[in-house]
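Forwarding the complex inputs:
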Amino acid sequence: MDLLIKGGRVIDPSQGLDEKLDILVVDGKIKEIGKKLTTGKGVEAIDAKGMIVSPGLIDMHVHLRDPGLEYKEDIVTGTRAAAAGGFTSVACMPNTKPVNDNKAVTSYIIAKAKAEGLVNVFPVGCITQGMKGENLAEMGDMKEAGCVAVSDDGRPVSNPELMRRALEYAKGMGIMLISHSEDLGLSADGQMNDGFTATELGLKGIPWVAEDAAIARDVFLAEFTNSPIHVAHVSTKGAVRIIRAAKARGVKVTCETGPHYFTLTEDAVRGYDSNAKMNPPLRAAEDVEAIRAGLADGTIDAIATDHAPHHMDEKDVEFVLASNGIIGLETSLPLSLVLVDDKVFDLNALITAMSLNPARILGIDRGTLAPGSVADITIIDPDAVWTVEAEKLASRSKNSPFLGKEMKGRATYTIVDGKIVFKRD
Amino acid sequence: MGFKHKDILGLQDLTAEEIELLLNTADNMKEISKREIKKVPTLRGKTVVNLFFEPSTRTRTSFEIAAKRLSADTLNISASTSAVQKGETLSDTARNIEAMKPDIIVMRHAISGSHHYLAKRVSYSVINAGDGQHEHPSQGLLDMMTMREKLGTLKGIKVAIVGDITHSRVARSNIYGLTKMGAKVFLSGPPTLIPPGVERLGAVTVCGRMRDAVEDADVVMMLRIQLERQGKTLLPTMREYSRYFGLSDDVMKMAKPGVLVMHPGPMNRGVEISSETADGANSVILEQVENGVAVRMSMLYHVSGGGPTE
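Prediction (whole assembly, two chains):
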């Protein structure tokens, strides 16, 4: 069915649009944007008065756990959570079981997403075979099969020579390399941010320099090889500084941060809350400020959740034994809208960070409402107040530090390829 | 005043008044151990379970004797952490024990925060007998009891704590307790074993040189250094450690005459402390152990809700 979205505030940074407009969707494509468009027969009208109409949001860093770890999440539940959170596309990391280091796994993900997924799924392949950090994976083959980037997310490439060659090779194959930059020697056995709170709780710290030193290396390697690089889940003040300086001298570096890094500090770990355990860890207040400043001046290009579902049995244990990671798809939008309320940046910048920039970085034809483009659209009620409740989350896992917290703003419609895949009652 | 806590997880959670109450009760309890019949009926009909996931002789025995002198029924469960990691979760272990209706669990666990995890999930009282690198409240209390007994007060005394502060639950509990009670705490140890922000745990002074911490001290508390730490990233050799952070006669001369020498045990003789010092006139190491029983009787008594001790 064709759609007419009426009377919403249409914000599309790709066209510099921000005004009250109607959008007509025909055959899964944006047909027309304008004032007072009229409905014809067989067109479903959506009243978007008071709503924000945005190009479909894109989360460029999620873990769907499929294949192999479906007890945490799978492509069906993960894309359902994405749709409920307002995301029309997700890029899924390759640390599945088996890892996505070859065309066969990539093809499985794409086929299952097409058949059963609610939103677009763009797989990210491994940088190295088996994600072991030893030999390059078949990036060309995986790209042909549909991978949009490569990353050894969660298992950083330690060997600098291998990282150099990976950057050169990925560039040649025309595929983005996403780096989980972490010096494992410095972070070994760490449980939370290194500092006073770790001292107080008697937990081994992960110092900021474990992230900064690795990002500095990776940025230098990208500069040396003249290759693009995207740095995942930036969490420290120093990381923002390094990337800002690199951008200023023309290095092709982009980066993302997660909502938890601009919302929570290491204090959330007090009481040994395993839902505040992730890698990189929640940092100090000054890091949170720096992340916000990085979003404000565009040093940080994208907001991505690092949605990391874990079963209760992996989280409801002693803090040290708990798995790293939190879910994020269903809380990302309201947490990011806080940045607008706090005047860190405006809605245009928010939608740039959550849609246009992820699309550009991954090289996918999304993130725009330009006529003729695929009709991936998110309609947002910026004022809806709601509470995060475990039973109401679409994700199979419930490991969120925001359970019980009040949120403002959420998606009311999520439209993929011109079809309504999520509608809030 | 009464004692309001269901659990004793750490001295960080207690006020100066509560610590004083625990110490005063311990002073009274000490006399019971000197009687011919070392037993009072205070905890008759109560069940105390010692659940030790880490090896311990002193602390486990001390808690067991303390419970028995109060007429509680006690039992000991030992499990190595590795066995638990392979099999039953802490949560399941705790709930299985809970089904047998104990009143108090005394637990030692290698993982910091295990007791917080447990206390949130069970109805019985939890006493922390040491969790990872976090807290060891009964040790902190017995140390303070010993200092107070010998020096008359904790207020204004100078205490030097020397050694591996980073990995020490004894240091943390002592820092919380002593600073709350008005003692001046000085820390010293290799720079690699002083954790970040330690001066914010309480009003403590960190000294790079051991002698600066020990100078004019009323108490010198030596911490156990784990021999496994040498030759890795934190320390070169035990020889060098001992030279800079071992308690020798020379360093002891810097302290006040009559300084109390303490050690939570087990000691590495000849490493952090010489045998001459450990067994010398200033050593109160065995008094610490003696007071440990009294302090633990006090803890068991107060988490059980207090009441008459005779």
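Chain A touches chain B through 20 residues (CB under 8 Å).
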